[in-house]
């Protein structure tokens, strides 16, 4: 008589930093596909070869996992933007338009990340969403930073900053819906020529 052994989950031991990166990558992909409310901790654990308790050991909770993903993406974007601007911190660059164009070019190379943020930003309009405060603060900080960079360059820096953010977000949604027909970078540059026309 043949005895069938139960399947054992393969859990190769990874250094903590490498495991955390793996968890963030798997979670990023799943949230982009399903949204936060459709995210299952079991699916994340399965994607990483972990048990759910093993996953929770690294991230603490589902909300903690979401915030870890968002913080990681912000840091990656900040670092990539600085590299694309020749190693100069974004705040030190003379042209706000150059900063925005660099961001759009980066986003055009990472549709999955843009989709992740678009899905989460829409979901987080609900006050009980765990990323509600994160996105509210992120939006406020983005507009304030842009407005500061536009001071002395535009008659209404706050209004222009708001329009820039609205344009970038709107173009990204159109591009995600129809990437074959919408050239995100080209559409941004065409619109930016009009948007920044009055700015020095």
Automatic annotation (TrEMBL):
Pfam families xrefs: TetR_C_6, TetR_N
Coiled-coil residue windows: none
Residue span(s) of domain HTH tetR-type: 17-77
This protein's UniProt keywords: DNA-binding, Repressor, Transcription, Transcription regulation
Ranges annotated as DNA-binding: 40-59
Gene3D superfamilies listed in its UniProt record: Tetracycline Repressor, domain 2 (1.10.357.10)
Keyword rRNA-binding on entry: no
Protein name, per record: TetR/AcrR family transcriptional regulator
């Amino acid at each position: 008589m043949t005895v069938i052994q139960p399947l054992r989950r393969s859990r190769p031991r990874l250094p903590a930093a490498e495991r955390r990166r793996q968890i963030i990558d798997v979670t990023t992909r799943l949230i982009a596909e399903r949204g936060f409310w459709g995210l299952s901790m079991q699916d994340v654990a399965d994607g990483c070869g972990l048990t759910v308790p093993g996953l929770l050991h690294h991230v603490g909770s589902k909300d903690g996992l979401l915030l870890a993903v968002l913080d990681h993406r912000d840091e990656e974007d900040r670092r990539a933007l600085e590299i694309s601007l020749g190693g100069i911190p974004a705040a030190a660059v003379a042209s706000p338009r150059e900063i925005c164009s660099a961001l759009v070019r980066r986003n055009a190379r990472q549709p999955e990340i843009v989709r992740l943020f678009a899905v989460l930003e829409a979901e987080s309009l609900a006050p009980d969403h765990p990323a509600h405060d994160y996105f509210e603060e992120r939006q406020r900080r983005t507009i304030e930073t842009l407005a500061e960079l536009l001071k002395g360059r535009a008659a209404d820096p706050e209004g222009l900053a708001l329009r820039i953010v609205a344009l970038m977000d709107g173009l990204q949604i159109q591009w995600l819906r129809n990437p074959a027909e919408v050239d995100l970078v080209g559409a941004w540059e065409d619109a930016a020529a009009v948007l920044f026309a009055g700015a020095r």
